[in-house]
Amino acid sequence: MQQAVHSLRIAPRGRGLTEITGAVRDWIDKQEIDTGLLTLFCRHTSASLVIQENADPDVRADLEAFFEKIAPEDPQRYKHRTEGPDDMPAHLRAALTQSQLSIPIVDGELALGTWQGIYLFEHRRIPHEREIVLHAIGE
Amino acid sequence: MQQAVHSLRIAPRGRGLTEITGAVRDWIDKQEIDTGLLTLFCRHTSASLVIQENADPDVRADLEAFFEKIAPEDPQRYKHRTEGPDDMPAHLRAALTQSQLSIPIVDGELALGTWQGIYLFEHRRIPHEREIVLHAIGE
Amino acid sequence: MQQAVHSLRIAPRGRGLTEITGAVRDWIDKQEIDTGLLTLFCRHTSASLVIQENADPDVRADLEAFFEKIAPEDPQRYKHRTEGPDDMPAHLRAALTQSQLSIPIVDGELALGTWQGIYLFEHRRIPHEREIVLHAIGE
Questions:
Q1: CB atoms < 10 A from the CB of C114, how many?
Q2: With bands split at pLDDT 50, 70 and 90, how would you rate the model's confidence at A126?
Q3: C40 by DSSP, 3-state: which?
Q4: Is the CB of B51 less than 8 angstroms away from the CB of C71?
Q5: Looking at residue C50, what is its pLDDT?
Q6: Touching check for C55 and chain A: CB below 8 Å?
Q7: Average pLDDT, chain C
Q8: Using one digit for the tens of pLDDT, what is the confidence trace for A33-85?
């Protein structure tokens, strides 16, 4: 049984979904794990992780619009305003999605379905470099 | 330390929650793992996983109604409409719940609480066969 | 490779977020795991787990207010009312957040970001003792 860890750094251009499936697969391919478990952990409270359809880009646009609607930028709603009007909605959108995802490794491949992509969901307007910790265990 | 993987196939009758606790427990019982970790991974973007109360069926009905309300079928809201009016709401409901769950195994049993059941949450109206990948590690 | 499990018991004073980062770190420190994976599992359907900002307490107040708004106490909306008006909203808020979190252990420390705290999110008004199962694997 072996383990590996890696820090994946992503610089999204701004708010919304950035696909990281390719970068994650590239790292997994180097680990030579046939059966195991990959865990992705987002080290931020205003960005998060989500698995979504990787085919029609309209899905991503609709998903972003949905989260803007249910957790809107509206300073009058929030006490926490010191970091800008997009900060508290960012925390809410992070709470509604995932800080962490674990995906089995089967026959040397991530067990993602055909239409599943892994996305970093940036919730702030100003670009931030983000760090996702990858942990793999298996053999 | 050992590992096991399994593909659990579920054919829900339509939209809503289908309990899979029994099928998952049956598989875990065969692995003879005393201490470990089980991960369930849903290979779809229009179905998801949720842990909910397994006692009163009204809880499931209320949960389904809640998700129909916050992520409604309303084609005018969405750009992604080619796969039917229930497809984009399905992706949103999947994003708000889980693609993956990990549950410790303690004394040979899943560490679920007394009232916790594991459910596949089907979000499409037309029945689809769904695949949940199970991964267990432990000894 | 080693494993450890522990039952962490928490008695929140009532509804809202209770930080458990310190108690979790104390237990991890005793395991002497340099590289590994920690999983926290909440054994309840009316309490859940969330990673949130640990700096400004206003973030927690805003988060609590947000969940009270999107999944309100309003008995007319719900069929499941036998356990009180706060029970069904508790299940909905649990479904929207996490029953489980997995966090890599890197260089003997949890890979939490600087501003990340781990919180038990109690959704019932009357205080309940809650149990979080901790599972660690690594070496």
A1: 10
A2: very high
A3: strand
A4: no
A5: 98
A6: no
A7: 97
A8: 999 999 999 999 999 999 999 999 999 999 999 999 999 999 999 999 989 99
Min Cα separation A75/chain C (Å): 11
- Work out the mean pLDDT of chain A and round it to a whole number: 97
C59 contact A CB<8A:
yes
Distance separating alpha carbons of residues B87 and B83, to the nearest angstrom = 6
A51 vs A72: CA distance, rounded Å: 22
What's the CA gap between C88 and B65, in Å, rounded? Answer: 12
A95 touches chain B (CB under 8 A): no
Chain A nearest-CA residue for B79: A58
Alpha helices in C86-128, H assignment, sequence order: 87-96
Length of chain A: 139
- Separation of alpha carbons C95 and B59, rounded Å: 11
d(CA B116, CA C58): 32
Sign of the C-alpha dihedral computed for residues C64, C65, C70 and C76 taken in this order: positive
Please name the amino acid found at residue B6: H
| Tokens representing residue A94 in the block | 């992070």
Residue type, A97: T
Using CA atoms, how far apart are residues A42 and A131, in angstroms rounded to an integer?
6
pTM of the model as a whole = 0.98
Looking at residue C72, its pLDDT comes to 97
User: Mind telling me how many Å the CA of C45 is from chain B's nearest CA?
Assistant: 6
What element of type H or E holds A25? Answer: helix A21-31
Q: Mean pLDDT in chain B?
A: 97
Q: Is B8 on the interface with A (CB under 8 A)?
A: no
User: Burial level of B84, CB count in 10 A (0-12/13-18/19+)?
Assistant: middle
d(CA B72, CA A118): 24
> Which residues from C are below 8 Å from A137, CB to CB?
36-37, 137-138
